[in-house]
C-alpha cells in the first residue's frame, strides 16, 4: 500500500520511545522507525499505478502550505476498520492536516471507513493488548508535543520506505 504521509519528526519518535515501557502485554508494538502518520492512502497496487497516483496527488497538493500538528492525547480504536483490536495510538490534532486530507480526498476519492469524515489522524503505538495494558497507556501523563509540517512524503508500506517528498511552502 502506498500513501501520502507526514514524516514523523524526532520529537514524536522521542515520545514513542517514552511510551515503549508501557506497551508490555501488546502482541504487536510499533517502533520509532515504523511509525507513520498517514494523510491519504493512494489507490495503487504496483509501482506503475503508484506513479500515476503520485502525479495526481502532487497536482492536488500544489499550494498546500506548511501547518502545525500537536499530540496531547492517547486514543483507542476498539473496533478498527482493519486488523486486530484494540489499537492504541497518539492522537494528532491539526486543522492544517485535515485541510490537506480533504483536498486529497476531493481530488483522489476516499477509502470508505478510513478517510473523509472517518479519518482519524494518528500514530499507532500498538495493537492486540489486554484491557489493563490499554488503560495503562491511556492513563499515562505526558507533555504534549507540537511541530511544524513542512513536507509530506510518499510512502511504500510494504517495503517500509519513503519514496519521495514534497515540500510545503511557508
Describe the secondary-structure layout:
Layout: E1 2-6, H1 10-19, E2 28-29, E3 37-42, H2 47-61, E4 67-77, E5 87-93, H3 95-108, E6 122-127, H4 131-138, E7 145-149, E8 151-156, E9 161-167
Antiparallel strand pairs: 1-3, 1-8, 2-6, 4-5, 4-7, 5-6, 8-9
Descriptive report:
The chain is an alpha+beta fold. It is 28% helix and 32% strand. Strands 2-6-5-4-7 form a five-stranded antiparallel β-sheet. A hairpin with a 4-residue loop joins β8 and β9. α2 (47-61) packs across α3. The longest helix is centred in the N-terminal third of the chain and has 15 residues, at 47-61. The radius of gyration is 16 Å and the shape is globular. It starts with a strand and ends with a strand.
Describe this protein with a few key phrases.
globular; alpha+beta; 28% helix; 170 residues; four-stranded antiparallel beta sheet; 9 strands; five-stranded antiparallel beta sheet
